[in-house]
Amino acid sequence: LSRRCHHRSVSMLDVPFLPFCAFLGALGLLCVAMVGTWCQHWRGGFSLDGSSRTFNWHPVLMVTGLVVLYGAAALVYRIPNTWSGPKLPWKVLHGSLALGAFILTVLGLAAVFCFHNSQGTPNMYSLHSWMGLATVLLFSCQWVAGFGAFLLPWAPTWLRALYKPIHVFFGSTILLLSVASCASGINEKLFFSL
């Protein structure tokens, strides 16, 4: 009985890789479009003048960086087992997407700190703030450690093998923290708006 249940659960997860990636990419674009539309039409648009329109860059950049691009980086490295080519292009794409996510995240943090400072609002006053900052700090450490262990040629094989499960664990944890930070941030903004 357990063999049959195990076989059934494995076959249920057998999804074609490229269509699944395309589906998740479309969901990511839809997510960014919805947050952008929310900020453009219901929150007053975008600006760099320190007003609430400066703040509007924060949710768009953070969702694009920490959820969509970081999620794409995680997915890209889950190449199908049937791939027989070199892994280096996938590693470079994985690291590049994560670097792009990091850049957008830093810009998103700069936008919210600029807004808070121009309005006289204290920084780091909520659970969302602290959870988001912890996520960004973990993400920064993850990127630097991953770059050093997997993309630089000096790292020995034993070190890569030792660090890989840690890298995978923290990658998944950071992605979950990113989604939780986004949900808490949107709820916080709605709470203050309503």
UniProtKB/TrEMBL annotation:
It is an enzyme of class 7 (translocase). GO terms for cellular component: late endosome membrane; lysosomal membrane. Keywords: Electron transport, Endosome, Glycoprotein, Heme, Iron, Lysosome, Membrane, Metal-binding, Oxidoreductase, Translocase, Transmembrane, Transmembrane helix, Transport. Its EC number is 7.2.1.3. Pfam families: Cytochrom_B561 (PF03188). It comes from the Eukaryota. It catalyses: Fe(3+)(out) + L-ascorbate(in) = monodehydro-L-ascorbate radical(in) + Fe(2+)(out) + H(+). It is found in: Late endosome membrane; Lysosome membrane. Residues 23-194 form the Cytochrome b561 domain. Signal peptide: none annotated. PROSITE patterns: CYTOCHROME_B561. One of its GO terms (molecular function) is metal ion binding. Gene3D superfamilies: 1.20.120.1770. Its main location: membrane. The chain crosses the membrane at residues 17-39, 60-80, 92-115, 127-154, 166-186. Coiled coil: none annotated. Its cofactor is heme b. Homodimer. Transmembrane reductase that uses ascorbate as an electron donor in the cytoplasm and transfers electrons across membranes to reduce iron cations Fe(3+) into Fe(2+) in the lumen of the late endosome and lysosome. Reduced iron can then be extruded from the late endosome and lysosome to the cytoplasm by divalent metal-specific transporters. It is therefore most probably involved in endosomal and lysosomal cellular iron homeostasis. This is Lysosomal membrane ascorbate-dependent ferrireductase CYB561A3.
